Amino acid sequence: MARMSDQPARWTQATVYPDMWTDPDKDPRNNEGASPDGELATLQDFLTNYRITLRMKCEGLDAEQLARRSVPPSTMSLLGLLRHLVEVERDWRNWISDDDPLPKLYGKRDADFDGAVADQAEVDAAYAALEREQAATDAALAAYADLGERVGKEGIAVRELMVHRIEEYARHCGHADLLRECVDGRVGQ
């Protein structure tokens, strides 16, 4: 495990803007042109870009690096964040539904972080589960064209759920920035 004195030198892959993660022509979030039309399309665009950002922050790391904890006593790691967002996506479907809640995939509270171990099978499973849960939540929300429609037992507006999803990914992308810098020194917005 890396100690504070073992922190790597800061670096970026970007050559055009040294404070960026990658050069604009290689950035999968870079959509040249006008922003999307409409509220739903705008919300979906922001969500998509934060999802891509999280994956970018994890790219190129092995299982040990992805599972590396931040600073004690935190159990946070990049792999833990991926697993946490699997649970979050699943839980959002519980907010939409009137049915019994879907069970947690990783068990008790904080098991998503605690169980994030340096095993390539765990990494592969986390990525597959995240794709599956994101697709399921996206499909469940696609049934509601009206962002003001109230859904689920709590009567939450679809708009509020969409904004909350963006907020969740944005917050965790900030965590991912710091975690990645601790792992190999790579920085950038």
Could you write a compact summary of the structure shown?
This is DUF664 domain-containing protein. The chain is an all-alpha fold and 189 residues long.
* Helical segment count: 6
Low-confidence stretches: none
What's the overall average pLDDT, rounded?
Answer: 90
**What is the CATH superfamily label?**
dinb family like domain
What characterizes the major β-sheet? 2 strands, antiparallel
The total tally of domains equals: 1
Shape, per Cα inertia axes: flat
Class in CATH?
Mainly Alpha
Can you describe this structure?
With 189 residues, this protein is mainly α. It has six helices and two strands, in the order H-H-H-H-H-E-E-H. It has a single domain, classed as Up-down Bundle (Four Helix Bundle (Hemerythrin (Met), subunit A)), CATH 1.20.120.450. It is 52% helix and 2% strand. A two-stranded antiparallel sheet has the order 1-2. Strand 1 and strand 2 form a beta hairpin. Helix 3 packs parallel to helix 5. It is flat, with a radius of gyration of 18 Å. The two termini are 26 Å apart. 24% of the residues are buried. The model has no long low-confidence stretch (mean pLDDT 90).
